[in-house]
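Q: Predict the bound structure with zinc ion.
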Amino acid sequence: MARFTLNILGCGSAKPTPQHLPACQVLDFRDKLYMIDCGEGAQHTFAQMHLRPSRLNHVFISHLHGDHFLGLLGLLSSMTLMGKEGEVVVHTFADGARIIGDMMNYIDRHRSYELRFNIIKVGHEVIYEDNALRVSTLPLKHSVPAVGFLFEEKGKERHLRGDMADFHGIPAWQRAAVKGGADFVKPDGTVIPNNFLTTAPDPPVRYAYCSDTMPSERVIPLIEGVDWLYHEATYDSTRADKARQYCHSTAAQAAEVARRAQAKHLIIGHYSARYDTPELLLREAQAIFPATIAAAERQRLDLLR
Ligand SMILES: [Zn+2]
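A: Predicted complex:
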């Protein structure tokens, strides 16, 4: 069974609090891990959640504020201690590649794995793609260059009809090809077209990560109809001025983005240190967009549900 799970490692903002760690998430998709941002403490929560470095090959950094990437140096250094093999690709701006590259060459010169950088820019373009997943950037509005990330499943298998598979005697070794769209050729040469044997695949699941940002008009059409939207909700509505001043969003603004983009679910996070619990932010968001949940550390969400 395919897996598409979102692990929340940190959902606080820059100021440390007893409740939260800074931004970090890990998508667990078909046995590979994709990290989004890497605030301080990420590697500790990574271990607590029993996530394995051997499966982590891609890290996506939204912007270069410390609460979104300062945990990466620790995590990357520890990977050598854990005997990580293969490569780790950090998708970041040119400045990020320079800063992180310089630091890593100083503190962990003899890495057990290859560290590569994929330079990204503010905009909307595909930055990673394999046969199962596509990742593109989303242009955000923040006080420094910032992007969100859109993760899209691709190439999902068609559903094989059990009755037809039995009726035509499709052997087990040919079923994967039929699920992939191939016709079935019987031993006597009769061709059974694929549309008699299968039904359409489930629609691909899409997940958008938008943090840190003010509400952005440009992003709304790019995330239209997403199954899951993580949108920062740093403040409540009484602090809308502060949100604007620091280029962040209120919970109501996050909900408004979800509503206008016709997202199916909204997850809010990046809470300001002034809130002991996200209750107020959640209430404000749910008043506009009922299908909102509040992110919490060590939460696992099944994105296929
Ligand atoms: Zn920021």
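A: The longest strand covers residues 4-10.
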